[in-house]
Amino acid sequence: MSQVIPEEVLRNETLIAHLADIAADAALLHGVLMRLQESPNSSELVTYAPFTLFPTSVPKAVFQQALAVQTHFNTLVDKISQDTDFLEEALASTVEVDDFTARLFAIHKQIVKEGRSQSVVLGLNRSDYMLDQRDDGDLSLKQIEINTIAASFGGLSSHTPDVHRHILKVAGLLDESQRILDNNPAAGLARGLAKAWELYGSERAAVMFLAEGKQRNVFDQRRVENELWKKNIPVIRKRFGDVHETGSLDQDKRLFVDGQEVAVVYFRDGYMPQCYFSEQCWDARLLMERSLAVKCPDISTHLTGLKKIQQVLARPGVLEKFFPDQPQVVEQIRATFTGLYTLDMGPDGDKTVAMALAAPDKFVLKPQREGGGNNFYGSELSKVLEAVKQSTERTAYILMDKINPAPVQNYLLRRDSPLKISSCLSELGVFGVYVRQGNTMVMNECVGHLLRTKSSEHADGGVAAGVAVLDNPLLV
Ligand code: ADP
Ligand code: MG
Asked: Do 333 and 72 touch, CB atoms closer than 8 A?
């Protein structure tokens, strides 16, 4: 990624201040909004979602590569989620030491034992990448992770293109303005939800958004909700607590929450330990998993998104197992993998420990967590690894090559933040949607993209964590 915004624009302080004012208004006008940290459950006061003043250039070839591989990732996630033996073997060492994974896995085991009550599966995922700057100067697309639960910003990123178009026009960059791509993941995600709802087959039943306790990012979700309402599909928003208090299954395992039948449960919560603040939340998760409702994701698809699975997939021969007759698909997927290494007990794991401690700046140490801010880099990586390297505790983590994108100068606009130029790194996300009914894939699509950008001072952390901001790719 490189800067396409002329230096004389980037460095013109008066112009930048003017553009930043206009940008905030444009974001508000286009509904690129967030609630305030101090009042996350009220829309009385809102602000713009943090975003970059300028879009960031992305080479066309790698952008298209990311879009083109998405349907294969959809298929891969779906295949893994059905392969009980593979999941069990891949997660065996993690389940031993990581309580959160162990609890999710226990639900998965119970569902496998009881038999799945619903043959319709809906996947809404987002595969994230950075562009690694190789020694020869070329950029290569490398996957950071794939999110199979609660992947966010499909809603807001459907409206950020208009904001950047406007800013670029005001900056006198009309050509660039016209090159900002359209993007509408909200519509695509809703198409998947609508298909699952239709296959469930009851007009009275609703799509239930399982919402977090703190709903700062509600507007992102409302975009998707409203797409469903446009199709006359009823939507309700409930929390874990609501499901526990008012949820039940009838004799056909149909899920009712607060008297309303639920056709599809769309999890926007439940991805990290803190989401399950009481035993009752776990009971509610189990209730939903056992039900006839289509779960997005179901428990096995949730597990498929774990970083441990990502690491196992990078082992020689594993992708081939899932695509036995499609070497070109294997090749396309594998091209996006960077080095991923096991920390299981044994000689391979020992080798990983020695390699990481010898050059901690070249790697990232990752536990089985989501939501940003959980990974370790550099001296912290060494400290954590030194502390766990002799015990099975180390198997809670995986090690990954650190991807090194080229920094780009930009301004990060965020409420109450000083306007200053920053050296920034970007992460490209691609949204995938699939629906399977029994053995038939009835939908498998790539439905849009998301560019997030953060200051290079921060090694980790997403938009929700207050580090990254929304951006748009400008193809070059
Ligand atoms: P989470 O599930 O918390 O989002 P990620 O794997 O996406 O975990 O990591 C969080 C952030 O850390 C990413 O958004 C990215 O900025 C940074 N990061 C993760 N893996 C790498 C890597 N291999 N190289 C460079 N940065 C990384
Ligand atoms: Mg991430």
From this structure: yes
**Which pLDDT does position 355 carry in this prediction?**
98
Say how many C-beta atoms besides its own lie within 10 A of residue 474's C-beta: 23
Residue 83's pLDDT is: 98
In the reported structure, the alpha carbon of residue 188 is separated from the centroid of ligand 2 by a whole-number distance in angstroms of 21
The residues with which 469 forms a beta bridge, in sequence order, are 453
Closest CA to 48 of 67, 65, 66, 26: 26
Nearest to 217 by CA among 372, 360, 78, 22: 372
State residue 96 phi and psi, 5-degree precision.
-60, -35
Q: Which residue segments constitute the domains of the chain, with CATH numbers given? A: 7-338+411-475 (no CATH), 340-402 (3.30.1490.50)
Ligand 1, atom nearest to 142 Cα: 23
> 322-341 burial, b for 16+ CB within 10 Å, e for fewer?
bbeeeeebbebbeebbbbbb
Among 468, 371, 435, 473, which Cα is nearest to 189's?
435
Q: Which residues of the chain have pLDDT under 50?
A: none
CA distance 47 to 416: 10
Q: Ligand 1 in contact with 189 (CB < 6 A)? A: no
* Ligand in closest contact with the CA of 371: 1
Is the CB–ligand 1 distance for residue 238 below 6 Å? no
Pocket flag, ligand 1, residue 403 (CB < 6 Å): yes
**Looking at ligand 1, which residue's alpha carbon is closest to its atom 18?**
460
- Contact between residue 145 and residue 307 where contact means Cβ atoms under 8 Å apart: yes
Ligand 1 atom index nearest CA of 405: 25
436 forms beta bridges with: 121, 441
DSSP state of 459: S
Per residue in 339-395, pLDDT tens? 999 999 999 999 999 999 999 999 999 999 998 889 999 999 999 999 999 999 999
* Pairing relationship of beta strands 376-377 and 408-413 according to DSSP bridges: unpaired
Check residue 461 and give its pLDDT: 73
Question: Does residue 372's CB lie within 6 angstroms of at least one atom of ligand 1?
Answer: yes
pLDDT of residue 137: 79
312 contacts 318 by C-beta, under 8 angstroms = yes
**β-bridge pairing 56-58 and 473-475:** parallel
According to DSSP, the residues that pair with 265 across neighbouring strands are 208, 295
Q: Give the C-alpha separation, 329 to 320, whole Å.
A: 9
The rounded distance, in Å, linking the Cα atoms of 391 and 83 is 29
DSSP for 177-193, written as a single string? HHTBPP--HHHHHHHHH
Among all residues, which ones are annotated catalytic? Answer: 126, 145, 147, 152, 307, 366, 370-371, 452
